[in-house]
Specification:
Strand order of the largest sheet: 1-2-3-4-5-6-7-8-9-10-11-12-14-13
Number of helices: 0
Order of helices and strands: EEEEEEEEEEEEEEEEEEEEEEEE
Shape: rod-shaped
Radius of gyration: 40 Å
Helix content: under 10%
Structural class: mainly beta
Strand content: 35-45%
């Protein structure tokens, strides 16, 4: 063992241990431990631990841990942990954690956590959390959280969240299990990721449902109906759920006949009581097929109907009446 400096290696210095500096390795320095700097590794420095810098590894530095820098790993540095920088891993750095940078992992750094950069993961960094960049994950970074970039997740970053920040200003999380990226270049094209420019949150979702063909509604009446009335009679009617504002296509078809040959049977296709189509239906005893479509700007609840009547004489007959409505734009 080697002890150089007043009170260095003073009591129970282990085999192969090295203590250089005032009071370094002063009390129960472990085997093969190294303490260089005044008050480094003063009390109960563990086997194969390394403390370099004034007050580094001061009290209860655990085996195989490394503290380099003034007051690094100062109190109860955990097994196999690393602290590099002034006051890095200063107090209660947990086992297998890494703190690199002044004030990084300074207080209560969690098990297997990583903090790299000035004041990164400085206080209460959660287990397995990662903070890379100045002041990233600075206070109360959650378990398994990741913060990359200066000022990312500075306060209370949620567990299992990811923040990637290159804005130079702070960027925080809003919920657990979330992803935040800033900046993102704006580009046209298919979207698989959804990005909230206000919160900077990125979420994944299926591609948006195409507008064309959405909000589809249909109604039909195949049975034969007849009337001798000259007032309009409803053959079939379609009432929608509330429609998103847009352009819609209303398609219609029906078969008509009249017991009196060559007499007009009037059929009206209506939207909310207003005539949308008025096909001229001259029919005889044989059924004839009529149909078509119209485009309308619609929103909210809409009712479409097919109505029919005789204009003068005879018996109007109608069957296989159909209405279809869907959005096109």
């Amino acid at each position: 063992a080697i002890a150089l400096g007043e009170s260095s290696g003073n009591f129970r210095q282990g085999t192969g241990a090295v203590a250089i500096g005032l009071a370094s390795g002063g009390d129960t320095q472990g085997n093969n431990a190294v303490a260089i700097g005044s008050n480094s590794g003063v009390q109960q420095q563990g086997a194969s631990a390394i403390a370099i810098g004034a007050n580094s590894g001061l009290v209860t530095q655990s085996p195989n841990s490394i503290a380099i820098g003034e007051s690094s790993g100062n109190q109860q540095q955990g097994d196999n942990s690393i602290a590099v920088g002034r006051q890095s891993g200063n107090a209660f750095q947990a086992p297998n954690s890494i703190a690199i940078g002044n004030d990084s992992g300074k207080l209560n750094q969690g098990i297997a956590a990583i903090a790299m950069g000035l004041a990164s993961g400085s206080e209460n960094q959660g287990e397995r959390a990662i903070a890379i960049g100045a002041v990233s994950g600075n206070t109360n970074q959650g378990t398994d959280a990741i913060a990359i970039g200066s000022n990312s997740g500075t306060t209370n970053q949620h567990s299992n969240s990811i923040i990637i920040n290159a804005t130079g200003t702070s960027l925080e999380s809003a919920s657990s299990g979330s992803l935040y990226i800033a900046p993102i270049r704006d580009a046209n094209g298919p979207k698989i990721l959804k990005y909230d420019p206000t919160t900077k949150e990125v979420t994944s979702s299926d591609l948006s449902t195409p507008i064309y063909g959405s909000n589809f509604h249909q109604q039909s009446s195949d049975v034969e109906s007849s009337t001798t009335a000259t007032t309009l009679i409803t053959k079939t009617s379609l009432t929608t759920a509330s429609l998103t504002a847009g352009t819609y296509r209303l398609g219609y078809s029906f078969e008509v006949s009249n017991a009196a040959n060559g007499v007009l049977t009037e059929v009206e296709v209506m939207l909310d009581g207003v005539v949308a189509a008025l096909p001229t239906c001259e029919a005889d005893n044989d059924y004839k097929l009529f149909g078509g479509f119209v485009y309308q700007n619609l929103s909210g609840v809409v009712t479409a109907t097919i109505k029919y009547r005789v204009l003068t004489t005879g018996t109007a007959r109608i069957r296989r009446a159909r209405l279809e409505l869907w959005r096109v734009n």
